[in-house]
From TrEMBL:
Keywords from the named record: Cell outer membrane, Membrane, Signal
Localization in the cell: Cell outer membrane
Family: Belongs to the SusD family.
SUPFAM superfamilies: TPR-like (SSF48452)
Protein name: RagB/SusD family nutrient uptake outer membrane protein
Domain SusD-like N-terminal intervals: 22-213
Domain (RagB/SusD) ranges: 269-497
Cleaved signal peptide residues: 1-19
One Gene Ontology cellular component: cell outer membrane
Predominant place of localization: membrane
Native organism: Larkinella terrae
InterPro entries in alphabetical order: SusD-like_N, SusD_RagB_dom, TPR-like_helical_dom_sf
Amino acid sequence: MKKFLIISLVSTASLLLTACQDFLDKNPLDQLSNQTFWTTEKDADMAIAGVYSQLLSLTYDHHRMDWDALTDDFFLFGTYQRVDNIAKGIIEPATGGLVSTVYLESYKGVTACNVFLANIDRVTMDEAKKNRYKGEVLFLRALFYFTLTEFYGGVPLYTKPITLAEAAVKQSPKATVIEQVIKDLDDAIALLPATLYTSHAVKGSALALKAKVLMHNNKWQEAADAANLVIQSKVFKLATDYQTMFLTKGQTNNPEIMFSARYLNPDRFSSESPDMKYGNAAAINGSQNFVDEFECTDGLPISQSPLYDKTAYKKNRDPRLDYTIRDIKEQLVSSTGVKFTNTAAGIYTSYLVRKYVDPENLPFSYSTRSDQDYILTRYAEVLLIYAEAKNEASGPDQSVYDAVNAVRARVKMPALPTGLTQATLRDRIRHERRVELGAEGYRYLDIKRWKIAEKVIPGIVDPGGVLRKFDPAKHYLFPFPQSEIDINKNLTQNPGY
């Protein structure tokens, strides 16, 4: 299985060569080896930076926003990552794009984690710091494997560096992989500090991911319990300013951000910044369906509210509509007076993305260096995980209302009406996830785990006139990339492909 061996070597090299000139000065590139590396605390610092660098990829940074263009929320202009074909139901082992990158980038992350965990005990360093690093890497491995299960179901499970002979194994059942994910997270939770997130994963990061994994696997009460531990810890809270949370100036020491893919100028920056991709190029455009989902300020849908004005669609609407979507006619202006209005050819709709588009980075170009972090977990999601899981486990109670209403109150939306049935409250929670987390890449996995993808996707027609398709017989999972099937004869292709 040569490709996995190559991935292992590349990942190991990235750990050893991560942006540290001092190390390069004393260890020439052609002399780097396991024997010279895993010795000092500085080696450990570089190694864990190499593991975290695996997040700076198409699968774990702002490119996740494109996943929403596989749903009823957004359209993607162009052929980027073959989102266009996948949205049309053209998904095959040789499709490439997301079908391949999610798999390969996640396994690069797994390999980096396994190399770190296999070698860290060779390093002479402070034991408390070493244990914290172990916890962080266990958390990251759980994240990589969880992502793999969301797209492919059961996958090959490796928990140590692999040899060529060991690599060609059949996939483990999804339940087995999830069991390992939860074990890694429990071990991480025991090792990580109960502090705010600043750059390294903390206990709350791992608890939040555990709650999410359990919820996505319909373990409702366990998910609610894990989310409630985050809530009761009172370490994290909702940010007062929703909009700036997605911009550089609002991310430092933000009490809502629980984990992110972090960029830092001048050394670590996004080569295709969200400013350029979603600001200038307008790569994804909101659908009318998505825009209509936002309630009026009286808490009623636009079909029922007397406040709705179709001639001024943002007037009297949930503020998150404006925080998420900007009109194509809107001019962006930086604090220094630089102005920009979209004129990109091929824009599908007039609903462009505002999240992660920072006017302070104007003028936008492909040379723009952006160090906005891409948020992978935030406290509002934990509240909504708790609400959904608790409602599914035991039905409505005050704690469910409190969690949802806290998210709504932050943007001055009225509280939910009381006395809702479990089914009605389920719909309201799903609505809240859609508008609170809009344009953040959640919707695709949500509609699949709710088993409603075949209801909400078919019938949608792209502005270009192309009908979207979703076949429930096979599209709930991606196929394994054909290149992996060719190399690993023990890997069984997913059904329908």
